[in-house]
Design brief:
- This protein has 273 residues and is an alpha/beta fold.
- It has two domains: 148 residues, Rossmann fold (3-Layer(aba) Sandwich), CATH 3.40.50; 105 residues, Dihydrodipicolinate Reductase, domain 2, CATH 3.30.360.
- It contains eight helices and twelve strands.
- A seven-stranded parallel sheet has the order 3-2-1-4-5-6-12, sandwiched between helices. It has a five-stranded mixed sheet with strand order 8-9-7-10-11, with helices on one face.
- Strand 1, helix 2 and strand 2 form a beta-alpha-beta unit.
- The chain is elongated and about 60 Å long.
- The termini are far apart.
Length: 273
């Protein structure tokens, strides 16, 4: 089966001068997907890490590292796994990481509440970096949203609008939920998330956060947090111009997680060091 993506050519020039004995060894889960290719390219440009293997249900090799259909098949030793695949891969990755005491960076979205519970439980035994969005800008947006909510929350209605490409499966996005959770964490009276209003003929209540999803074209990712008050609106926005920002964040997280003690980590931990 041919890959839907062009082969990533290994550049010998990029390998010159790299001290591989000091580099962090990374396995990319979902390596044959769009984000997997971007991550592999980002790692190739760095001097502090290298890809030693890939995992993908389509086990087709396109670079110098081997690709396996399942985590259990991987023969190479790694410091960290970066997962940008599918929620169905979670259990296999957790089992592999617990068996080999390998750190795990989870960048996949669309997990169920039960799967998130399993992630948190596994973090008691292995180091796990879990974030709904690997962008530095989005994580700053979450912090700004908390500050805005502390000032405006009791007087302004809060709505979140997210836009993504027409191939995205889950809605609302994991990032939108992360932003809603950030807003809700500051409120004295917690709000409920409302995803669909067309079946409800009633006024908006004060204790809700509206969540709206748009899917179309090739939109990489846009998120707006709207604070709507009496005769004024405050909007906090973030626009992703390319997928590379998520790849760079994931690779930075992988280097950060190498050698960490068991626990659940996020962008806040990485930025504080």
């Amino acid at each position: 089966m041919m890959s839907a993506f062009p082969a990533m050519r290994f550049s010998p020039e990029k390998a010159i001068g790299k001290d591989r004995s000091k580099m962090k060894n990374i396995i990319i889960s979902g390596c044959n997907g769009k984000m997997g290719h971007v991550i592999a390219s980002c790692i190739l440009d760095r001097n502090d890490c290298q890809t030693v293997a890939g995992i993908d249900r389509v086990a087709e090799q396109y670079a110098r590292f081997p690709v396996y259909a399942a985590a259990a098949d991987v023969k190479e030793q790694a410091d960290v796994i970066i997962d940008f695949s599918h929620p169905s891969a979670l259990d296999g990755l957790l089992e592999y990481c617990k068996l080999h005491q390998t750190a795990l960076v989870i960048a996949t979205t669309g997990y169920s509440a039960d799967q998130i519970t399993r992630i948190k439980a596994a973090a008691r035994n292995i180091p796990i970096f879990f974030s709904f969005n690997m962008s530095l800008g989005i994580n700053l947006l979450a912090e700004l949203a908390k500050k805005a909510t502390a000032v405006l929350g009791g007087q302004f209605d809060i709505e979140i609008v997210e836009k993504h490409h027409n191939q995205k499966i889950d809605a609302p996005s994991g990032t939108a939920l992360m932003l809603a959770d950030a807003v809700n964490s500051v409120l004295d009276e917690k709000c409920q998330y409302v995803y669909d209003r067309h079946s409800q003929r009633k006024k908006r209540s004060k204790n809700e956060i509206g969540m709206h999803s748009i899917r179309g074209g090739t939109i990489v990712g846009e998120h707006d947090i709207i604070f709507a008050g009496r005769d004024e609106i405050v909007t906090l926005s973030h626009t992703a111009m390319s997928k590379e920002i998520f790849a760079v964040g994931a690779v930075n997280a992988a280097v950060f997680m190498a050698g960490k003690a068991p626990g659940l980590y996020d962008m806040g931990h990485m930025l504080s060091e």
